[in-house]
Amino acid sequence: xxxxxxxxxxxxxxxxxxxxxxxxxxxxxxxxxxxxxxxxxxxxxxxxxxxxxxxxxxxxxxxxxxxxxxxxxxxxxxxxxxxxxxxxxxxxxxxxxxxxxxxxxxxxxxxxxxxxxxxxxxxxxxxxxxxxxxxxxxxxxxxxxxxxxxxxxxxxxxxxxxxxxxxxxxxxxxxxxxxxxxxxxxxxxxxxxxxxxxxxxxxxxxxxxxxxxxxxxxxxxxxxxxxxxxxxxxxxxxxxxxxxxxxxxxxxxxxxxxxxxxxxxxxxxxxxxxxxxxxxxxxxxxxxxxxxxxxxxxxxxxxxxxxxxxxxxxxxxxxxxxxxxxxxxxxxxxxxxxxxxxxxxxxxxxxxxxxxxxxxxxxxxxxxxxxxxxxxxxxxxxxxxxxxxxxxxxxxxxxxxxxxxxxxxxxxxxxxxxxxxxxxxxxxxxxxxxxxxxxxxxxxxxxxxxxxxxxxxxxx
Length: 460
What we know:
The protein is mainly alpha-helical. The chain has 20 helices and no strands. The protein has helices spanning about 1-15, 20-30, 35-55, 60-65, 70-95, 95-100, 100-120, 130-160, 165-195, 195-215, 230-235, 235-265, 270-280, 280-300, 305-320, 335-365, 370-405, 405-415, 415-445, 450-460.
């Protein structure tokens, strides 16, 4: 909370000395050393986790099929990561203050780096059930480490930047997008040049190198634990709607993991090394638009509701065009496919960036105490809902892709953001109606003298 302390100290000094307030305002905008170190540490986990996650896309579905795993099973392997991440986020979010945010962050990175290297050894095991079982086991361990690091990361960021969290989150999504951009082409080319093991061993070692670095630079954020109830938070109507938004976004992204690479190889006949380049449109548009959307969300909080609604509806239209849907009778072309991915990246950013500040604002409005304990609850909830969508997306997407084809599967997938966009719009309309009616009652209270006169007249 160093920024608030600096702000108050600066304002008091300007008033006592009689100096103008402008210099203190400029100084208050400067980041403290703790804030800079926090940004560096969280940027490293955003980048490393996304690049390790995204390298699977171009070649793992094909490699898994060679090992006897069907497309549905591949989707379940991706979904297994999300299921364990979902459960881990709920548990770790409740015990963040007891475990310690810094310890959870660093240990999560260590586990993630180790199991990434282990995942690169799976091509040595026999095909069939043994390979599939070890894939599930290693991905579960990776999910546990990822959940620990990301839950702590959200809490630490919100603690360090309480007044402009959307701007900071949006800026850090540049590193998320950079990981998504570099992961598929880097993984594809390393796989094509050196084989299955090298992409995982290389990136796992990079993550392990970052562990001692973050142990040194990441500040210690501690607080006294409180008795805030997780169920009290999740049962709030607005939180339920926002959770649906998070779920739909993650489902849409998770759907792409087991399906897009196979569709590109089959439809456009691209080499495996070039498949990852197709993902550049989505990753670049998301990472470049996120800082602007975060700044807009902080400077104009009333626009968050419009971003959530329009982003959900736009995502639904994009997924209907991704195939495109057979009812449109449009031939699938590479330029159209890349263009739709660019629009999907932008529309997902419209929803993903404002949703976390909206959850925090809703919690504060309903009497939750500000502190690291609440931040653990909200970040755990966010990661849990994201993981639940990441479970449903690959699992359902792999099944639909196998049974109906990619064109129909992507069109059906668009139903999730359509549902969340409509539900969010209806909720905000009802909320605005209730507020306007309550304000009109407060502005025009009933006149007791008039009511008394009418009663006396009726009695006579």
